[in-house]
Amino acid sequence: MLFCSPTTPDSCADITHARQLGLVQLLADGSAVEILSDAGYQGLGAQTGGRVMTPPHRKFKKNAPDWYEEMYERQRTAHSSRRIRVEHGIAHLKNWRTLARHLGRREHMSDIVQAVAALLSHQQTADHASAQQT
How many domains does the chain have? Predict the structure, then answer.
């Protein structure tokens, strides 16, 4: 996990939240890292110098040519197969009981997610190190 935003009391789109917290500027100015995101971040790639990769935007809603449908499906599948690791990482976080059944105060959620992400990262590093020793 690269970033965990603080919780807010109101509803807000992911991309708006990223812009308000300065994540877009951080990605644009930071080191060259590729981020595979979902469709909720459409348009962020242009603002970050191509660092954020989103699924392809559908240009034709109706009566699309056959060649376009095939190309669109290939691009979408390629992005999806690369992004599956991100989804699995999110799923690992949600497997932790404290996140799956969070009943505590909302303002503590950011700290809990960061703590679980750190524990999960440590666990995976330890598993990888023990696998190399055997």
Answer: 1
Print the domain residue range for 80: 14-133
In a domain, 5, yes or no: no
Instruction: Tell me the sheet residues that pair with 35.
Output: 52
Distance CA(16)–CA(14), nearest Å, equals: 5
pLDDT at residue number 77: 92
64-79 pLDDT tens trace: 888 888 898 899 999 9
User: pTM for the full model?
Assistant: 0.67
> Residue 13 has which token pair?
């789109």
- The segment with the largest mean pLDDT, out of 31-40, 57-66, 79-88, is 79-88
